[in-house]
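re: that chain from earlier
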Amino acid sequence: MTADIRPPFVYRLRTGNFSLLALLVATLMLGACSSIPDAGRITDKNSANWQRHFNHVFEINSWYARSKIAVKTVDQGFSGHLSWQQNPDSYEIDFVGPMGIGLMKISGNPQTTSLMIPDKPLFSGASPEQLLQNHTGYQLPVSQLYFWARGIPNPKLAFEIQLNPSGQLKRLQQLGWNIEYLNYHRYQHVMLPGKIVIKKGAIKIKLVRLDWQAINSTNL
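^ sequence. v structure.
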């Protein structure tokens, strides 16, 4: 679920009444020799805190996290728990419903993505979003959650953000999705989201009690 990040991209930064368009240029490669994208040369204090926070979080490339999840659309929905094992070049996300009933498992690497649903054949494809849409009817931004779950935007794409007083994301708009960060928790030396609400049209996704049980970064 790692991303091939290419410059340039533009974002709009909001901090209270403060609004500024900034051109961000970053030449990046995800891997051992990665550099960190500039999150904006802004003189505002919160934005300086955001740059430092972004730098720390961006370098987290593997983790194990658990969360309660609820997904609602116009005519369907589910709730349960997810567990997420992220490695630098692969990932596995398990969705478990009430009473520990397995709902589905998504796993992938740079070459392919697989979707496992109980009592159905293994589905494979290039995109987790397309697999979910085709075989479950749910539209979930799985690839973007690689960034959003950590509390940062995908720096490859245009985005608009609003910061909280500590210089972390309060709200994010990207790819037509609206992401709201309701609280953060400290893990090791970095603040990571504890509750996230993601909306697009009639789709609403809630990640609650997001528990970061292990993270790895060259910066921690």
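Residues 61-146+181-217 form a domain with the outer membrane lipoprotein receptor (LolB), chain A fold (CATH 2.50.20.10).
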